[in-house]
Design goal:
transferase, globular, Phospho-2-dehydro-3-deoxyheptonate aldolase, identical protein binding, EC 2.5.1.54, DAHP1/KDSA, single chain, 11 helices
């Protein structure tokens, strides 16, 4: 037995966490919250299948680092969800994990105190509590599933989820998406390549057998049926891909792959050049396409916070309230203007001759 490696001798430290079932029991979802999640998932599914004339709007901070400012943002957004529900299915972007090319702050779950103490148990609890508080306002949530070990702690409170550009090519994420009960958006690669996202889409639509964390904290073998509501998210790359020609091209590729010709467009990242104000031009272009009758745009993503811009996380330096510590975000007033613009575009689309012709082919229903 001398040649057997004892992993306990490796220089690492571990801490036992509560199981997903235990955290859910400690912070349970109410019946109204469960109903809101179910209705929102259903609505988003109809939108991405082109069975609803509205569009999805996934809007909120690049990442959550302060639950107080996030809840204030949610309170403001909840009123807009009600005001524009005829044209938009508004869902708040509530991202708790941040992928890193090398190193950096990994998000609220990983390091909730923003000080390198990595209190993951606290991060999971704070994340779930915030999701419950947001839903109590009548506002559903969207997130990115990055670390698959965290999914079962939160997925009952998620109405839409993204698989990011760095993980779209991951077989594990594609398999997991096939078994999740909400619409999943696969982003194109960081270089702008859409093939990886379409390949992911085909995989997620298919049944799989895979291993996953169980509710009691063990490992279970999952048999999924496939997720028919998975779709592509265009987030740009070396160049933007929100323009009409790019949408035509990806929809042609989707048709060749046997997938529905619908896309969600991320106004940030490569499409905005990572400049917050660039999202304004992207959304105005998308609004024009929509108003002119483009029916294949099923949704828009916007990175937005209470205050415009971003700030660095510097030890010992107080943070400005309501401003991102990751990517630049639009400020609140600019966000409200874009929401109004996109809602107007959806209403105009319903009146366009091109769109009315598409109605007969796709049987949209309000």
């Amino acid at each position: 037995m001398d040649d057997v490696i004892d992993n306990r001798a490796l220089p690492s430290r571990t801490a036992r966490l509560v199981s997903p079932a235990q955290l859910r029991a400690f912070l349970p979802a109410s019946a109204p919250t469960n109903g809101l999640v179910r209705r929102t998932r259903d609505a988003l599914t109809r939108i991405v299948r082109r069975e609803d004339t509205r569009i999805a709007l996934i809007v909120g901070p690049c990442s959550i680092h302060d639950t107080r400012s996030a809840l204030e943002y949610a309170t403001r957004l909840a009123s807009l969800r009600d005001a524009y529900r005829d044209a938009l299915e508004i869902v708040m972007r509530v991202y708790f994990e941040k992928p890193r090319t090398t190193v950096g702050w990994k998000g609220l779950i990983n390091d909730p105190r923003l000080d390198g103490s990595y209190r993951i148990a606290e991060g999971l609890e704070r994340a779930r509590r915030l999701l419950l508080d947001i839903h109590a306002l009548g506002l559903p949530a969207a997130t990115e599933f990055l670390d698959l070990m965290t999914v079962r702690y939160l997925d009952d409170l998620v109405s839409w989820a993204a698989i990011g550009a760095r993980t779209t090519e991951s077989p594990m994420h594609r398999q997991a998406a096939s078994g999740l009960g909400m619409p999943i958006g696969f982003k194109n690669g960081t270089d702008g390549g859409v093939k990886v996202a379409i390949d992911a889409l085909v995989a997620a639509h298919s049944p799989h057998r895979y291993l996953a964390l169980s509710m009691d904290g063990g490992i279970e073998a999952v048999a999924s049926d496939g997720n028919p509501s998975a779709h592509v998210v265009l987030r740009g790359g070396k160049k933007p891909n929100y323009d009409a020609a790019s949408i035509d091209a990806v929809c042609t590729d989707l048709a060749r792959a046997g997938m529905a010709q619908t896309v969600v467009v991320d106004a940030s990242h490569g499409n905005s050049g990572k400049v917050a104000q660039g999202q304004t031009a992207v959304c105005r272009d998308l609004a024009k396409q929509i108003a002119d009758g483009e029916g294949r745009i099923a949704g828009v993503m916007i990175e937005s916070h209470l205050s415009h811009g971003r700030q660095d996380l510097i030890p010992g330096v107080p943070l400005a309230y309501g401003q991102s510590i990751t990517d630049e975000c639009l400020g609140w007033d600019d966000t409200v203007e874009l929401i109004h613009t996109l809602a107007g575009a959806v209403r105009a689309r319903r009146r366009s001759a091109l769109y009315r012709s598409a109605l007969a082919q796709h049987a949209f229903s309000d």
